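Box S2. Input/output pair 1.
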Amino acid sequence: MSGALSSPSPSAPERAGTKAGNARLIVRCPDRPGIIAAISRFLFERGANIVESSQYSDGTFLLRIVFTAPSVDEDALATFEAEFAEEVAAPFDMEWRLELADRPKRVAIFVSRYDHCLLDLLWRARRGELPIDVGVVISNHPDLEPQVEPFGVPYVHIPVTKETKAQAEAEQLRVLGGRYDLVVLARYMQILTGDFLEKVGCPVINIHHSFLPAFKGAGPYERAKRRGVKLIGATAHYVTEDLDEGPIIEQGVVRVGHRDTVADLERRGADVERTVLSRAVAWHCEDRVLRVGETTVVL
């Protein structure tokens, strides 16, 4: 498979033994006639049935197809990938990847002291509302460990100071061990360095209130109240070295008024953050989000 669209995928042992089920094919290539026909014919000839298909083109063709296949065990997938690469991907100059739709993405959550996004993700994961398997919660504070314990997820406390940031990030990377498909910053109040982002080996999603950059820094809701804002919201985006400038995945807003107190704004802001982050994580883990330069396409 082409590396440009690749993300951490299950190893051969994880794939082994998997039988009939759903798979996702994600494609990016220069737009031209015949792409969908070639892919559909290829799937049909192998007994697959397309159950969902989304596409977009602005000169670059983007496609997400979900299909059922008679067999998606290790041998069948290897054969599929090799034949698709030769018969379809190469002629159309495709970047592509194949994902098992029934395999939850392995997710690590970073958090500081705010619990609303963390607990919402854990709750949705436990209820099966998110296609994720949360393997660890990493925090720079010990405060939330009692709240995470009932979910049966390991809680790792790694203190971070200005002087120990490099060592702390090295320990975080050691705990992650390259075993995760996604890292979610559920109100993790630390800036990740470029070195961490380069070594983590998977995408990182962050959530922040949408006052940025107008109300950067401490006390954004207090300043928003003083300015008489009428809308508050949240933004979920991929993390890059440029602080809060990564490609946006999802946003949400709620209307507020002069009768709302600062506590009301904070509560409503937390509600928006929860829902926006959960949608962003769901879309990413369903392989719906394709990064295109500084923006994203959600198929």
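Box S3. Input/output pair 2.
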Amino acid sequence: MIRNISKLAEVHGGRPARVVLSALNYALEQVDPAGLVKSSVKVKGDSIAVKGIKGEKIKLKDFDKVYVVGAGKACARMADSLCVILGKKLTLGAITVPIGEKNKVKREFRSVLEVTEGTHPVPNSSGLRGAEKIIKVLDTASSNDLVFMLISGGGSALLPLPAPGLKLSDKQRITNKLLFSGATIREVNTVRKHVSGIKGGQLLRYSNYARVVSLILSDVIDDDLSSIASGPTSPDPSTFADALKTLRKYNLVDPKDPAIRHIINGSRGLVRDTPKRGDPVFNRVHNILIGNNELACRAAVRFLRRSHISTEYLGSRFDGEAKEYGSFLARLAVDLKAQSRSRFAVVLGGETTVTIRGTAGTGGRNQEAGLSCAIQQPLQILAATMGTDGIDGSSDAAGSLVSSATRQIANRKKIDLRLHLDRHDSYPALKAANSLIFTGRTGTNVNDIAIISSVD
């Protein structure tokens, strides 16, 4: 939840700002991973009903053991909720979560559910150990067992099992290069899957054909299951050739690099590719989407409408450069203000990127979009941009709330907003202008939300 609502509301116009920030809070509540799991999985007697598996109840008596594995920014909350639901029916489990999230799993469950903390977005050795623990759990499963797999954004970095012949340092190096290249998350994940021994459906190669139910919280545009956490339980439509194409696009092909050489060999048919649709490993798998950006955005719309504000939802497919997205938000605000005689708001979602040119400062895509919007923003308009995971880029802020007050404070303090924008250094400028949103880690992750609202 947003920690500094009162201060932001005071700076940016009082009640109108408070309503926008409260709408964001409500949106976060509706994509709380624990609540989503609770509403998706019901246990009654000896049966489990999972929303999304139509016309079929899972009979626990048909299985010898029940396991839970998973990884991602929302995994701790998801696992804690599922442990409550399963109770003593849970045999064993292992999950990997971001650093600082372990305590979101109740201590009483940790005797059967091992929780490992890893780093994001670049994997570390702890994440590798977590992936190995997950595989160890799966290795004990058989075709007579039931496995719940919990997947959310961030799982790509938190499941860093290198492909045979590669080291963790090889994955770290190529991940860093891609993150600073401006590659989209889909492109990054295409490469990740092809230097991994676990992503792109490959995790199922360790499941011994157990019955698998994957509960998935989406952090990608279009909710492509093969892209969320790099699709560890989903058929992978991408190939080694696609991964090589991405590397060429961003001028990252270096045959001396072991990870890149592995991809080159794979493109030549020398390495087995990730499993595709129709592969037998998917015969007993149910991939269930339990939450996404649209769910959060529509919740914000409901809140704003209940606050007597005429509100429209513009979709959850917005991407591209954060700076250009901010300019788009400013132009949109101008157009809407010209057309409306009453209080209005629009809600939109997605995920942008920041292409670093030169040395980067501190900030993230939501702050960069907010700063870009503030520079061009008309009077009497509020614009909020926030990452639902609560951590935006290289900062401790979740995003920003900008208004005419942002420029007024910046002018008074002689802060050159455009210079900060050009340097990808949005955080100090917005902090000085009292325009940052702080939530801390929210425990969920469904991309970003933006709200534009008039103040009269």
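Caption for Box S3: The CA atoms of residues 41 and 50 lie 5 Å apart. The chain has two domains: 5-29+294-454, 32-161+196-238+274-291.
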